[in-house]
Every structure is written in C-alpha cells, then in structure tokens.
Amino acid sequence: MDLDNIKVKSTYTDYESVLDGLTEEERQEYFMDKCVEIVKAKSEALGRPYTFSVQTFGCQMNSHDSEKIIGILNRIGMVEAEDEKADLIVFNTCTVRENANTKVYGHLGALKKLKENGTVDMIAICGCMMQQEDLVEYIRTKYRFVDLMFGTFNFYKLAELLYRRFTGKEKQIVEVLKSPEKSVERLPQKRKYSFKSGVNIMYGCNNFCTYCIVPYVRGRERSRTPEDILDEVKSLRDEGVIEIMLLGQNVNSYGINFMDESEIISNNPDYGFPELLSDVCKIDGIERVRFMTSHPKDLSDKLIEVMKNEPKICRQLHLPVQCGSTKLLQKMNRHYTKDQYLNLVDKIRKEIPDISLSTDIMIGFPGETEEDIQDTMDVIRHSQYDQVFTFIYSIRTGTPAASMEQLPAEIVNERFQRVLDLVHEVTAKSSGRFEGTVADVLVEEMNDHLDGYVTGRMSNNILVHFPGDSSMIGTIQSVFLREAKGFYYLGEIND
Ligand code: 5AD
Ligand code: SF4
Asked: Which pTM does this prediction carry?
C-alpha cells in the first residue's frame, strides 16, 4: 500500500502562522499532536498499528538520544516493531570510526528494494554521520529513497520533520544544523529499563584529540546547569528510577562552560563535577550513580575523594588511556604522560580498592612504533583492567591525524592481535577476584538462557546471574558470588 496517498487535510505551511510566539517545546508539542492524527489515519488504512524501528550505533550518548527519539515516536502513536522490519526505520548513526559508517551503508543498501516496493514506508537517518556535509551529500545522492536526514543538534524536531514529510511535497528532507540553536530538554523519553536512566550533563567536547571526529560532530563543550540536571534526576526518581548514569564526553570538565538555551551564561569555578555528583547523591530514592566518560587529564583528587566517601557512587571508572607511549600521547593531544596515567591509576586503586577500571586503547595511530606498543602493553599489565575496548585507528577526514603519515595495515593488524591477546590474559586474571564475596546486584531482567534465573549488575557494572523471579526486577538484592565465569558471576541470594 502506498501510504503517501492517504490524504491529510492541511499542509505544513498552513500552520506556520499558528506557531508564532511558541517556545520550542510548545512548537514540538504542536507537531506531535499533528502527527498523532496522521499516524492514526495511516494505522487505520493499514488495519494495524504503524510501526517503527530505531537502530542505534555508537556510544551511550547516542543510545540516550535514541530513547528520546523512541519517546517521540511512541507519543505520536507509532508502535515499536518486534524486529528491524517496520513502517518507519530510523538509523541513529555514529561516525567515530569508518566501520560505523560502513554498517549504515550496508543497512541502507539492503532496504532499497523494500522501500521501493512499499514494504517500508519511511527511512530516517540522524546522529553523528549527519554532521558531516560530505556524508550527507553522499547519502542524498546514492540513497535517494531516504526520506529524512537530520543531525545531532535538532533531533528534538523529529515530529515536525515527519509532519513536513507526511504532508508536504518534499520527497527528501535534509535539515542539519552546524551548531546548537536551542537546548530542548523536556522531550518524551522511552527508557529501556524503567528503573535506570542516563542523564546528559553536558554536550560536545573541546579536547580535539588529533584522531577524533567528535568535537566536529557534537560541537563545543556545553554543560547544563546544576538546577536543570537535579530537576531532571528528581523527576526520574519520581517515575521510579533508582540508578542514574551521568553522561558527557568528558564529565570531568563539567561546569567550565554552562549553557542556557544556546548561550554560554556563566563559568562557576567552585561548582564542578565532584559537586554535581555529590548533589545528585543527596537526592533521596536515587540508590546508584554512575558516570561516563572521564578524561584522565581532568580527573581531580576531589573527585576521587567524593567517590571514596559516597557509597551511592558506583565502583566503576572508565578511564580511556588510548595508548601508553608518552610520545604518541603528545601527538594525540591527550595532555598526560604514561607516568601521570599510571600514577593516577595507583592513586585511584589505593583510595578505592574495590574499583573496577576499564579503558579504550587505540592501535595504529600514525607514527606508532614497536616501542610505543610495548608502552601500551605495560599500561595494560599495570592497570589490571576489568574491561578493555580495543580499536584500530581509523582515519577521520578533517582531523589533524588524517594528514599524518599512516601505517601499513598488516603491521597494525599484527599489533592489534598481540594487544588483544594480552587484554584477554589481563582481564581473565582480574575477572575472578570477587568470587566468594557478597555484592549488591540491581536486577535488570529475567535471564534468557538460564531458566528461573535473573540477571543484574554489581556496582562495578559486572554481570551476575542468580536464581530469582520477575518480582526482583528493578530491586537491589544482596547476592553471594559463588562462581566466576569470566565476564560474569553465577550467584545466589545471600540470606
Ligand atoms: N579511530 C579509532 N578509534 C577512535 N576512537 C575515537 N576516534 C577514533 C578513531 N579515529 C576511540 C577512542 C575513544 C573511543 C570512544 O573511540 O578510543 O576513546
Ligand atoms: Fe574525542 Fe578526545 Fe573528545 Fe574523547 S576527549 S570525544 S577522544 S576529542
């Protein structure tokens, strides 16, 4: 069925005059209401709900944006499809490495026929790939059947863009902003778990690591005001959330540039991330607080102190090192040396012995030598990580490292494999260290593979499976960790 033929009475432009003087939130509410009518008509024509599927690539930030996108789509009456086949398919893209882009092209290629024969009604692409002009142009021309393209700064306008596409004459709508125009926070949100939620505390990044595209696609660093963040946490608490994950590209520089709408309004040297973290922990009903990501150069003693003394802060720290060589770290513009990083790890381990550390490692950065790899392996051995994310350096157009001399792929692949082997060895050694102890576990869901078991996470984010039932979901249980199984533990309720 060609859903384009369903008549809707008015077109987008007829409504422009009604919108004068509305705030952005009111404007978007208006378009959500308008979309409700259209989705209803489409569902009636189909004789079933109009479905959507949101496919998310990349980091926590994107997953959190997707929860808001899903919130909007639910609000306008669409129903989430059980699988990836749906009337509306949204790709929330990542562009941090080339293989993230390649995956999206693969999906798009597979959808061409389904779009042309009407099985799929509409395709939308948003996220970080859309903040690169050349990629937008490429998709526009190569995949002409894509209906909507929008970026990281205006995804809150999804209902408005859909309305334009549903009612107007444009076959393809592209709307990407180069920088944030407005900050629109109060969006409907569909959380994956009712009892835990991410909360953005800041957007963008000012660090310009020489390999990284993020500052170009997510913009300059801007922190939300503490009032705004604490209000959001309180309303999440009122909805039953007990675990909060504070999100930012570099949470340790929270508060350097506060933001109101798009303007930077103040700079308060006395209120930074440790203060915010303490204030979030003071909110009654919030039982656990996590955060992501910490840049090693900005992790202060004050933060370690707050973490040490506040039991609500989870015993988990993601501390991306990228590589262990001081020379390469300088070329990467990371602003710390190998020794400074190792000292930081030692200090954290001394103050918070039960901490679980994880990191990101990049292999194959331009100019990397065998000696640099040895430094990286030293850091991995010394830091005793619980989890290591290893990446092959991927050239990103427009970044300083893109114009440096690149290494041959064979050398990089061989080094990558060697580092990976070491990572497996180190994580295997550290993974069993909680066996025989008792831990608090926040139960997330029934276990898919073990009958009568539930699955949850310890404060340090490690998974635990133990016998239980659905009434435990969303509660914190005291669990005896009977057996270490590598990446997870098998346990039993500790009574
Ligand atoms: N190539 C490979 N990995 C990258 N990362 C960021 N940019 C690149 C790139 N160009 C990795 C870093 C970062 C993580 C989120 O992604 O390790 O910490
Ligand atoms: Fe990219 Fe560096 Fe910013 Fe992380 S800190 S997002 S690696 S520029």
From this structure: 0.91
